[in-house]
Amino acid sequence: MREENCGERGLLRQLMQPGVLPGSDGGVGLIETHISWVLLAGDYAWKLKKPLDLGFLDFSTVGRRREACEAELRLNRRTAPELYEAVVPVWRAGEGVRVGGEAPAAGAVADDYLVRMRRFEQSALLAHRLAAGALAPELFDRLARHVADFHAVAAVAKPGEGFGDAAAVLAPVRQNFAQVRERIEDPALRAELARVEAWVEAQAVTLASVFDARLAEGRVRECHGDLHLGNLIVLEGEPRLFDAIEFSAELRWTDVVADIAFLVMDLQLRGQDVLANRFLNAWLERSGDYGGLRLLPWYVSYRAMVRAKIAAIRASQVDGEARSESLAECARYLALVAAQARPTAPALLIASGVSGSGKSSQSQPLVEQGGVIRVRADVERKRLFGLDAMAASGSALGGGLYSAEATARTYARLAELARTVVAAGYPVLLDATFLRRAQRRSLAELAGVLGVPFVILAFDAPPEVLRERVRRRAAAGKDASEADLAVLEAQLRTREPLEEEELERALPIDTRSAPDWRALMPALRQLWPGAAYP
């Protein structure tokens, strides 16, 4: 490892002199990370990379630091162009330095390079907002769309490039375990480490073909690589990613599920499972990548082990209370890895009811509190026909996207996704009207084939309530559903009531007011013993 040299420290001191950086007459603030210094002056933040060679990153020469600055600018302008403005040279000027502008002489070589960013308040970080109790859950819906849209246009890795295949995925995982093992001595911690390592190794064998298939499908992309609450910001009311990993292609080129797994893990460790579940469902709905659920526990465990390694390294460098705190942190991350290995309780649930009955809005607590993966027919129908969820199809009642053929395709797609989600070990809720007995019977038979409980959540409300909801929703135009009053009236005339056999598997839910899911849980657990609700 090459430590920061005196020359670089000298440059830092010069840059912090009032008047050197634009807007610095009133002084310069400093934030230091393990690989950079960030200087705060006026409306700007200037990032200076430390001259380090840590193996996994190499900033040891001016040329390499320039390349890293240019990579940082390119990568982060994908998601936060409002923040990342330019790479700026630092020139030697007599006894001092000059920031930016033309070279002082022909052939002059810059002393170093800075990334110029717009400055923001720390209170804009999602980590700070969560700590202050000021993080609105709805923000995670918009964040999920932002992340999914970013992934959709990110560069795609190709097989043979060394990213995303089974070998590339497993190597850093094994390295994490080795590095933790050599730094902890506590017998209980070592025993826990051995247990979770055995599970990870077994999963590696099971998932090898899945990793390779995901790579072939184009799911391995140039992602963010460090997607946690400390690297998320609210700009003008909208969530944005920043500070993507620029120093390691191996950490950045990864499966999109590995990218979101970092945020899921971060939220889970903070006791924010509700927000983790909300974000996950919104990302899945936007991306349509339900197949990625098969890898989510693996990648959550990987992200947690990276943090466990960092805690173990810290523990090996300090003594006393600081060491105890670091070991306790390591133990928390190992416990989170162990949680990924616990048996799950998958089930197949359908949300049946006419438009406006609350199938989506009133099942949200099951999504957030119960960890259920919801798949909406309104969204998947449009995806089948190449439309965005919010796009208007212009289809007439019973025609276009809502013809008998299109509806049959939609329900077949729901069944296919139910298989995918259940096979990944998660309970799935199919959100569609399911007004026909044949539609419900088909899913009941599928649950039997899959060997999981089948439950009909029968949502309903008085007709006058349904009409008012549909009228308001259609006027707002902010939902994937295109149902209007004509559609609702047709549904009320033609819906087929539940038969006696279906009633034995049904949970009636009156949505005139918000359902009390805690009160409904005993009845739901009679139908689905594994139902979870805090």
Automatic annotation (TrEMBL):
Span of the signal peptide: none
InterPro entries the record matches: Aminoglycoside_PTrfase, Cell-binding_unc_protein, Kinase-like_dom_sf, P-loop_NTPase
Domain of life: Bacteria
Domain Aminoglycoside phosphotransferase: 64-296
Protein name per the record: Aminoglycoside phosphotransferase domain-containing protein
Native source species: Thauera humireducens
